[in-house]
Amino acid sequence: MSRIGKLPIPIPSGVDVKIDDEQIAVSGKLGTLFQPIPPSVQVCAEDGKVVITRKDESRTARAQHGLIRTLIANMVTGVSEGYTRFLDISGVGYRATLNGNDLTLALGFSHPVEVKPRDGISFEVGTDTNTRSPFIKISGIDKQVVGQTAAEIRALKKPEPYKGKGIRYRGEVIRRKAGKAGKAGGKGGA
Asked: Which of 124, 166, 123, 113 is nearest to 145 (CA)?
């Protein structure tokens, strides 16, 4: 039995769960999310909890048991609280601005980079009070879409290992390299 799959998912107040034969719909104050249910698992809502069970002990059913439970738990959290991801921008002249809903990034290229939000995603731009570096806040109800959007924005200018310039996740540690400092100290061999 899957340790994660057998855990029931508590349904908080204000969240409504509807289960059809082929999909589950979770709606809350922030929106509604849908997830198809594979035929190898069974989903039931009872006593304020969602319980996922396997129909058989096949390899597919065992693999999807914990997956579906985690996806449904993420849906419940998303429609009730939402998900956010922060990206920090470091580098001279690197900045982010909002044009309506679109995000405009100045990343040292000869042109500004425009990022349009996907459905259900909102951007917020600010400056960190401690480090005075700009940041981007990505918010939404779907955990996968928030993470994918953050990864695509980070991929526009990944942090480089010498000066650490670029876009990084909040809390991400960049492994720094020494550069050419090792050559500067001594005379080259003849």
From this structure: 123
**Measured distance CA(24)–CA(17) in Å, rounded:** 7
Question: 108 is written with which tokens?
Answer: 């040292």
- In the sheet that holds 49-54, the strands lie side by side as 9-10, 49-54, 41-46
Distance CA 91, CA 102 (A): 22
Place of tokens 């050559």: 183
Percent of the chain with pLDDT over 70: 94
Quick one: pLDDT at residue 80?
Answer: 94
Q: What homologous superfamily does CATH list for 83-169?
A: Ribosomal protein L6 (3.90.930.12)
Run of H or E residues at 35: strand 31-36
CATH of 9-80, one of 3.40.1690.10, 3.30.360.10, 3.60.40.10, 3.90.930.12: 3.90.930.12
Please list the residues that pair with 113 across neighbouring strands.
Answer: 105
pTM for the whole thing? 0.85
Q: 139-152 pLDDT, tens per residue?
A: 999 999 999 999 99
